[in-house]
Amino acid sequence: MADPVIDQVRLGAQGPLVGVQGLGCMGMSEFYGATDESAARETLDTALERGVTLLDTADIYGRGANEEFLAPFVAAHRDEITIATKFAVDRSAGDERRMVRNDPAYIRQAVEGSLRRLGVDVIDLYYMHRRDPAVPLAESVGAMGELVERGLVRHLGLSEVTGAELREAHAVHPIAALQSEWSLFSRDVERSAVGAAAELGVAFVPYSPLGRGFLTGAFADAGTDLGTDDFRRYQPRFTGENAAANAALLKPVHEIAAARGATAAQVALAWVQQRAEVHGLAVVPIPGTRKPSRLRENVAATGLHLDAEELAALEPIADRVAGDRYPDMSTTSAARE
Ligand SMILES: NC(=O)c1ccc[n+]([C@@H]2O[C@H](COP(=O)([O-])OP(=O)(O)OC[C@H]3O[C@@H](n4cnc5c(N)ncnc54)[C@H](OP(=O)(O)O)[C@@H]3O)[C@@H](O)[C@H]2O)c1
């Protein structure tokens, strides 16, 4: 018998129906070390078979290479998938001089590049990846709304904005989805963004729901040997004493996993799904993987329901995490709250 297909949920009031779990495609091109391309392509096929239809990319992943990598899959399954991409991080002057760009001229130029690399006429969900507070939000969201009017984009999303920013943007043009980091290790979004999204009917798309892999237990040894092409070697939570302290925090995750015959990754995914439901939010976590077996494992977490005692055991973890979620937090929503 074929594996069951996951349920669907709508992104925002008028957005697309997508599987309740999406797929983060970033690691297929950059940031987490070498990729086996054929396994990554097989992962995309497996995702679609299981009803995982929201594919997440951004123009900066691999400097456009991730969008290009996805293009053949998107072409082959255009009507079955929802392709989401993002603009706002300008790497053209080199990574030492990355800039956040929200000005309308940049937005109009960025969308053309993403359309070309993805090989599509229209982007299903177009996110502002980071916010530049120097540009009035209404100006940027107004420019994004014009892309919808021009038929280049179907729905709008924001990433790493505060609750107040989400409200302001939504008043300019309906926002279908807010994508921000949310996991057992990263709960700062619960301060304002989560409540605002619930109130406005904006879906939440938790990124790095596995804590960039840390929550799977794969980084149990302090100083885990990460290659120079793995940017986690610069992430405060993955390095030195922080890594050891954070690995110790996973004890209840492993205990629950063992008791349930599940994996730590599945417990982490079930947690974020249920945490969103508590807030009455439509939620579509986008765990990133390049391996079909992990895709199947992650999808199976949609059927895991943690009980009150298990949730209580997981509750204290985030407050005890050592290290910020980025080496430089200045462009995150947390910096503006
Ligand atoms: N909006 C933003 O600013 C932003 C920032 C970061 C990421 N994102 C998006 O969010 C997506 C997901 O986040 P993420 O990739 O950073 O982190 P994540 O989903 O928390 O973790 C991904 C890592 O976990 C590993 N993994 C996945 N499933 C696993 C399993 N079942 N068992 C063991 N290891 C597993 C992956 O390795 P393998 O790939 O080798 O399986 C990868 O190293 C990205 O792909 C990207 O699309 C958005």
Automatic annotation (TrEMBL):
Record-linked InterPro entries: AKR, Aldo-Keto_reductase, NAD(P)_OxRdtase_dom_sf, NADP_OxRdtase_dom
Statement: the UniProt record of this protein carries the keyword GTP-binding: no
Start and end residues of each NADP-dependent oxidoreductase domain: 22-317
Pfam families: Aldo_ket_red
Keywords annotated in UniProt: Oxidoreductase
Gene3D superfamilies per UniProt: NADP-dependent oxidoreductase domain
Protein name, UniProt field: Aldo/keto reductase
